[in-house]
Every structure is written in C-alpha cells, then in structure tokens.
User: What shape does this take?
Amino acid sequence: MNNTLTMAKPRYELLDGLRGVAAFLVIWYHFFEGFATSPVDQMMNHGYLAVDFFFVLSGFVIGYAYDDRWKSGMTAGRFMLRRLIRLQPMVVLSVMIGAIAFVIQGSVHWDGTPVAFHHVLLALVLGLLMIPVLPGAGVEVRGNGEMFPLNGPAWSLFFEYIGSILYAVFLHRLSNRALRVVVIASGIGLAACAIGNMSGAYHLGVGWSMADWGWIGGFLRLSFSFSAGLLMSRTFRPRQIRGAFWICAAAIAVLMALPYPCGPEANVANGIYDSVCTLLIFPAIVYIGACGKTTDRFSTNVCEFLGRLSYPIYIIHYPVMYLFYAWVWSHGYTFGQVWPVCAGLFVAIVTMAYVALRFYDEPARRYLSNKFLKNRGK
Assistant: This one.
C-alpha cells in the first residue's frame, strides 16, 4: 500500500457555501410546511428539491476527492469507514434529540394515540443503525409513514449511504461511457416518476417513506443526481465565472420558492418543472459554483461558515419542527401569528447546530480519524 504523502486538493469553497444555503432554505421549507394544507399551498413549495441538489453535490465532491485514490491503495472498506466517520456522529446525536423531542411531545402518534415505550426504544435503536421502518409498524411511532420517525430527514442520509456503497463497490469502476448510461437511464426513470405522478401530487418529494412508490422514488433521486455529480467531477473543465456564488444562491432560492405552475392544483406541469430542475438546472448550478472562486476573506468566511453548518443544520433541525408543529396545530395558529417564533427558532437551530459541530461532531470525527485512519494509508 502506498503510504506516501500527497498534497491535499483545494476545496471548492463555493460548493460548500451553496450546500449551506440549501440547508438554510430547508429549515424555512419545513417551517412553512406546518401551515400547508396540501403539497401545493405553502410558501416554499419546492423546498424538497434541496435533497436532489445535495445528491448532485455529493456525487461531484466524492468523485473529486476519491476517484484518483483507488489506484494508490484505497479500498471499499476504508472509503466506507471515512464516510461513517464523516456522517454517523451527527446521525447518532440527531436520533437522540429526536427521541427526547418525541417524549416531550407526549409519546403519541400525530392523532394522539399513545405509543408503547418499547416501540420508542426500538425506533431509537433502528434510527441509530440507520435501518428504516415500514409504514404501519408499531415502531413507526409518529404514525405518518416516515422511514425514520424520530428524525424524518435521516431518510436522505440512508440513501446517501446507499450512494456511498454503490460508489465504493461499483460506480468508481465504471468508465465515463458506462457512467453516462447510468445517468441517462436513471434520469429517464426519475422523469417518469415525476411526470407519471408516482407521488400522487406530480412532485419529486418522495423517498422519506417506504409506502407506495416512496423507496423507488428515493432511489431514483439518488441514482440520477449522485451519478450525474460523479460524472461531472470526471469531465469538469472550469471557466472563470464572476459572482458565481451569488448567482447560484439566488437560483437555488428562486427555484425552491416558486409556486406550483399552472394553478394551485397538482398537475403534470409540476412534474415537468421538478424534472427540469433536477436533470438540468441543478447540475448546471453545481458546474457554475465549481467554476467560481472566493476573492476576499469575507466571502471565503461566509462560504466556510455555511459549509461547516450545512450538515449539522440539516440533520438535527427536524426534531424542533416536530415540537413546533404540535404547538401550532394544537392552537390553530397561522404563520402571520407566529413568524417571530419561527425567526427565534431559526436562530436557535443555527446556534444548536454550531454548538453540536464545535463541541461534539468535530471532536468526535478527529478522535475517530486518529484512532482508525491515522497512519493506515489511503
């Protein structure tokens, strides 16, 4: 095994910053979700598309960071160990917070049905191990079909792990031509999922539940976006683009905030919109972001801050939402009545994420890396 030291590759600071922008927008998408009466009537109707953007970014960054390491000693086991060290500490913390929030809420389904304590414990164990639960099972403690009922957004981490396994075992071996076939085939499947109304509302907000087409839809979202990002990392040819961060950040915000096209009812036009965003626009945004560079200390610090917080914010914010939803729904509040609470909770979530990152996640990852990776080659 080659143990020679190599120079670290430069980071794409703008991509880190854009990941943070999308994560911040997800928080507000979930706030607005508490006042929606259907998939089409909230103030950030397309916030669910942030996951597809994350998957494109993940494929691009993983391909950039690891594609050239396999010939110098990288193994599938070592790659997965690196991914576990990167992702799992915050998964553990988020599930623990989710269990505490569920107990505070009263340990009941959304309809008020009490949940047995042993089901809560089992949901905790399954969440820690990233094992999804089936809708309607006793361990599906919230009663709304989530794969991970103590922390709903963990579903995307479940698929992120699947993507990492596929990359380690299969995708990194593919030629660019073969990878293009994967991208095209999964892109066709993803468009069929959206336009064919597999979700029941002509959107790509699927994958969080194993009900109906949920698991298949989630896998298609991962398969296209991750593979497309990986292919881009291999064929990327940068060109200078000024203001790339602000262009991309604005584009992400607008795309997620746009209402359903062609009226307030679910219709095929939204399936087309979601398909175009995922298949064309998000890869283009990643390309533009990778072409840009920070030119001053302020923009560098902003992108670094957003990038560091992106994962902690995304993975730990939803237990707060569970409590927020229960409070809003029990009192019948409107957003106009509680927006100051939303603003305060937003600051609290960002603060909580920073504290978790600074005093738990980064120390845990340093310890695990020193224990399991240091001086052990690639």
In short: The chain has one domain: 13-372. The first helix runs from residue 13 to 33.
